[in-house]
Amino acid sequence: MQKHTSLLFLAYVSGVLAALEFARSSVVASYSPNMSCIWSEKQALLRFKRGLFDEFNYLSSWVGDDCCSWRGIHCSTTSHVIELDLRNCALRGDQIINSSLLDLKYLNYLDLSFNNFNEIEIPDFFGSFKELTYLNLSSSNFQGLVPHHLGNLSTLRYLDLSNNYDHDYDYDYAYYNSLRIDSMRWVSGLSFLEHLDLSTVDLSEASTDPFSTKKIFPNSISVLKLAGCQLDNSIFSSVSCKNLTSLVSLDLAYNHFNHSFPLWVVNNSGLVQLNIGSNNFRGPIPKSLESLTALSKLDISDNNFQGYIPQSLVKLSKLAHLYIDSNQFIGSLSESYCHLSNLEILSVSENQLSGNIPKCIGELSNLSELRLHDNYWDGFVSEHHLMNLTRLKWLTISSKSNLVLNISSEWEPPFQLERIAMMSLKVGPCIPLWLQRQREFTGLELRNTSISIIPTDWLVSLVSHAYFVDLSDNDINGEQLLFISTHSNHLHTLSLSNNYLSGGFPLFICNLTSLMILVLSNNNLSGELPKCLGNLSELSELDVMDNNFSGDIPVSLGSLGNLTYLNLHNNKFQGKLPLSFHSLANLVVLDAGKNHLSDILPQWTREQLPFLKYLILRSNSFHGKIPTQLCHRSSIQVLNLAENQITGSIPPCFGNFSSMITGGSTELNKGLENDIGEMIRYNVKGSDLQYTSNLKFLFSINLSNNNISGEIPEELMELHGLTNLNLTGNRLTGRIPDKIGELRKLDSLDLSRNELNGPIPQSLSELNSLSSLNVSFNDLSGRIPTGRQLQTFNDLSIYAGNDQLCGQAILKPCAGDTESRNPQNDSEVETDLCSDDERLWFYAGAGPGILVGFLIFCGSLHFFESWRYSFFHYVEHVFDKIAVTSALWRRKFKN
């Protein structure tokens, strides 16, 4: 049996490519250097070249008479150009591709992949190459509608219009390909097609085409890749995929399927690779999956599959890659999976698996990746679980239950890991020797592992060659890092958050020239931030929240042009925000809250900080008026200026915050989709909450506890996506806007401690999402509205300090309220009348119903002797119990 069963797939799928390459090699080998290429074909190539920008001179060889010797050109024995291979030449095309290529009448191979055609459309004439068998336009930045003319390529065997992606990285496909297809009819005509890759091409329009319910793909298809195509249930069925008997590889990942496992798949018994990950498939895995005996790769990760991990998978003896992570599987991991001796990758992480991790996993000697994290494992992990894994490169383990790491510190592992992740396990206080002996780490994550001591030489070695180091949520204390001297041009992520580090900023960090993410939050670090941070030109996320840093914020931070996330929250910084911050062109999050800054609010122009979405300057000493320039930040999603000394009024132009109008996050997240950064602390409903992955759902304005005056602008009522509005503790006057009920997504509203007057608008009762309300200590008057969500607020204090308010909510009757109170308006009259009518109809229906029920009950007692006996026995028992209880009470009173 082969050790690497994936080779079977590669051999099978690449047959046609090997044949093409053999034919090409034969042609090239027989080509005589004394023969010149066809003059007309040479001119066609030169005209094509003139439409390209060759920045790196990859086409510098395109000179002279013999075009057959030019780079990327291959000719036949008759000197005709048959192959144009310009893959990954960094070419740029800013205009329409020259149709002179049609003069290459014998062209059978065209590869323009991994270039940049600057969002031009694929030319229609590409469908006119009569001899073409291979066409690859992947990852070349074409856009628009894929021309149906490609359906004329009757000899085509290989077509790739995809954008490149890798299973190990969760790309957001919507932003990586601008191509779309409105109908798949033309594909069905490519009767010789064997390899079709449309990954990331938008097929959502094709899903609505009635033709999609018919047979779409030619029977010759062996490789079909449609990952990230925005497909739903409509385009795939047992009809549309009928007779795909040659299918060897199928990739439907990152789409919108939301039904049970697609049973038509199991009819393709020759399938070697199957990827349906990152959809919303649900239910159990069918037993019939065991019929796919040739399967070497199965990926059903990131779905909603449920139940136990099926034993049928054990019968897939050729499995090399098995991804079942990020589902809802329960139960234990059966020891029978240890019989899958060809397994190279086993990923069962992020499920609800429990019980012990089988020791026999250590017998899977071909394993290179073992991912077990985020389950409910019990028991322990010892060296026996890893004993024979000589090829292991990637190991992840964590548990939400009581898993114990019990590996001898003296154990000599038979492998050298490249990446390890252990979370919520007791590993420390010291780094075990067996871990220190791992010298090939590119990524290390030891979070919440009780580590307190880090060997300096080990850390220096780790930092010098690793790409990713996360030691957060441990007990690392003191000034251990201050005396480290090292540098690295590899490390891009360093997280030491939630430890007990003290002393000054570790200066060795300034020597990590490739660093992109630095997280030192929640430690006891003090002193000033060093100016040398400005030398980290690749830095995109900097988080020093919850420390004791002081002094001025370094001006040099303004030179970090790639910075998207800057969190300085809860330190002792003083002075002003550096003027250099206006150069942070990619900044999305700026949190300088809870410091000692004293300045007027920044007056950035429209062109500066164009991507800023989260601006948090709360709990400082900012003063003066809110500048209207702030309104130029139309993408603002969170604005928190609370607890400062701001005066003046609320600018009406706040209504320009378009992100708050739609309540939808725009394509400005720019690198904030990782597990380390993207965290802010925000005060909602009177409590400091930490927002991480749900940050994109927060739309908030907090101007509380300042000295702001004037009225609440009507323009704020246009912010229909707003979830939190806090204006408490100011000097606002006038009425609460009548249109406040249009803020339908509002979850929290605090207008307390102002000088607002007039009635509470009736529209407030229309806020179905409202869970927190406070209008206390104003000069409000009139009846408090009732209905819907307002009925759930039982805390009288939210209306306190408004002596002229009345109504049921505060148990204070309004003027004219009597036992037979006249309704305030016609709507209340109608409501009361409706209530009387409803009451009348209720009694009219309930009376006969009770009578019929009573007659049925009596009839049952009459006809069923056993029922009658049981009922009267029960009644007699109840009366006896009442009699005994009464006698006991009488005796107690007599005594």
UniProtKB/TrEMBL annotation:
Its main location: membrane. This is Leucine-rich repeat-containing N-terminal plant-type domain-containing protein. It is a single-pass type I membrane protein. The keyword Transcription regulation does not apply. Residues 40-76 form the Leucine-rich repeat-containing N-terminal plant-type domain. It comes from the Eukaryota. Belongs to the RLP family. Gene3D superfamilies: Ribonuclease Inhibitor (3.80.10.10). Residues 283-437 form the Disease resistance R13L4/SHOC-2-like LRR domain.
